[in-house]
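Recall that a protein's primary structure is simply its ordered list of amino acids. Everything else, from secondary elements to tertiary packing, is in principle encoded there. The following example makes that idea concrete.
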Amino acid sequence: HCTWVTSEAYSSPSIVLAAKGHDGNKIIFDDFREAYYWLRQNTAEDARVMSWWDYGYQIAAMANRTILVDNNTWNNTHIAQVGSAFASDEDKAYKIMRSLDVDYVLVLFGGLTGYSSDDINKFL
């Protein structure tokens, strides 16, 4: 019940998303809320999380963890470093993340559900 209520109550961008399946049935995507809850329950309180800026405020508020970038884009250099890490091969990305003292990385993949706003599509 609470998942349905949150999917109806939150404004866009939502924490819980709703869509219609191929058969017309409503599908609830609760992945954001579950990921933030996992971060809150399974990481150290001083953990630093790297994600694309879109999710920064949500991670800070719901997971109560330090994030590297958020929707406040005044620090373009910092955002460029995060974007470069996401767009780089593993070796280069790892070096960037180490220099930023990253503990965890949140990457959204929506391929199985058809969520086209995932992080992978930002670089295709």
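The longest strand covers residues 17-20. The chain has five helices and five strands.
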